[in-house]
Design brief:
The protein has five helices and three strands. By secondary structure, the protein is mainly alpha-helical. It has one domain: Annexin V, domain 1 (Orthogonal Bundle), CATH 1.10.220.150. A hairpin with a 4-residue loop joins strand 1 and strand 2. Helix 1 packs parallel to helix 3 and helix 2 crosses helix 5. It is elongated, with a radius of gyration of 20 Å. It comes from Pongo abelii (Sumatran orangutan). This is AGFG2 isoform 4.
Length: 155
């Protein structure tokens, strides 16, 4: 007599196929985000906001890679940016696709298109107040806009 394997949770059953598949897909998306922040795009290795080496978060609102300090500052902006840890959270497929289409180099063209390093200075990452003021100029006042995709014109 052949018995069919039980697929659901409960006595004699294991993890449902749907849950296992979802967890496997989630791990794939997380791995892709880690790759984007590492070696696949050189511009993503440094924080988009302060240029500090070693990114640990992604700004889902604009699609950039940022450091821990700047992630907190971005959450404090008006409107707050949606920031997620690269290693401590899960990502959905649409989030990963968005990050793949953006990254720090594309964000630089969007948010710092008119930025002139000769007349304006990127703040020192060791001065959080200066970084916060820089972020307000960039995102709230849109001081140095480049080419904005229609979706971001609402920010």
């Amino acid at each position: 007599m052949v018995m069919a394997a039980k697929k659901g949770p409960g006595p004699g059953g294991g993890v449902s196929g749907g849950k296992a598949e979802a967890e496997a897909a989630s791990e794939v998306w997380c791995r892709r985000v880690r790759e984007l922040g590492g070696c696949s795009q050189a511009g993503n290795r440094h924080c988009f906001e302060c240029a500090q080496r070693g990114v640990t978060y992604v700004d889902i609102t604009v699609g950039s890679f940022v450091c821990t300090t700047c992630s907190g500052l971005l959450r404090g902006l008006n409107p707050p940016h949606r920031v997620k840890s690269i290693s401590m959270t899960t990502f959905t497929e649409p989030e990963v696709v968005f990050l793949q289409s953006r990254g720090n180099e594309v964000c630089r063209k969007i948010w710092l298109g008119l930025f002139d390093a000769r007349t304006s200075l990127v703040p020192d990452s060791r001065d959080p107040q200066k970084v916060k003021e820089f972020l307000q100029e960039k995102y709230e006042k849109k001081r140095w806009p480049g080419t904005f995709p229609r979706r971001l014109c609402q920010l």
